[in-house]
Amino acid sequence: MVTLAIDSSNKAMAIGLVDGNEIKGELALNVQQNHSIQLMPAIQYLMKASHVTPKDVTAIAVAQGPGSYTGLRIGVTVAKTMAWDLNIPLYGVSSLKVLAANITCFDGVIVSLLDARRNAVYIGAYRRSDVSAPLETVIEDTYLPMEELVAQLKALDEPVIVVGSHADILLYKTQFEEALSQCVFVEATDGIPSGARLALLSQFEEAQEPHTFVPSYIRMTEAETNWRKAQGLD
């Protein structure tokens, strides 16, 4: 079973090809570029380099969110289109879980975060006792002000490792260190999503219907929030 995985949910873009549990190839770009321009050429390059044709692909996995609204729409649209055209299963995986999968073993809580601005973050928290074990969810993907997040983590009273982009970790590192006595941070290389790990994580998910599959934004855009207020819906 050859799975093509796509993650364009944030600044770093990752794709991967996995055959069962064998990684055939993966590619990551961590540059501020338009994913709509780079994604399809990157997929074509990786498939050609891995000697995989579209007919060989038996499943599509995509980072479902949270993340950049534009990036998510691009990746999900490409994934849905390919799954429909090839008539193969489509699997969605949390973008935060993809980051957490970079931590293969840690005796404590793995906290994946993405900056949501205004001193708030998108976060998911997990445990993983063994490299072969699936990630166990501790805190479901959500949007939290930083003060609420550190309060919840403090109440758990466990060691914490924070996973995220280098920029996001720098933004919130001081707040974590001041609130938590047992807190460490990943190296910059572990803050970039892995397309191969995304493909492997999809094996634990249920297939989705391409026509009805949508990104998981978690929180509405500011424009959507303002529109709802203007319409008296909130």
From TrEMBL:
Q: Taxonomic lineage per UniProt?
A: Bacteria, Bacillati, Bacillota, Bacilli, Bacillales
* CDD domains (UniProt xref): ASKHA_NBD_TsaB
Recorded hits in NCBIfam families, A to Z, give:
T6A_YeaZ
- Gene3D superfamilies the record matches: 3.30.420.40
Gene expressing this chain = tsaB
This protein is called what?
A: tRNA(NNU) t(6)A37 threonylcarbamoyladenosine modification protease involved in TsaD function
Biological process (GO) annotations?
proteolysis; tRNA threonylcarbamoyladenosine modification
Q: Name one Pfam family in it.
A: TsaD
> What positions does the domain Gcp-like occupy?
31-227
Q: Which organism is it from?
A: Brochothrix thermosphacta (Microbacterium thermosphactum)
Where is it found, in Gene Ontology cellular component terms?
A: cytosol
What are the entry keywords? Hydrolase, Protease
Q: Which domain of life is it from?
A: Bacteria
Q: State the Gene Ontology terms under molecular function.
A: peptidase activity
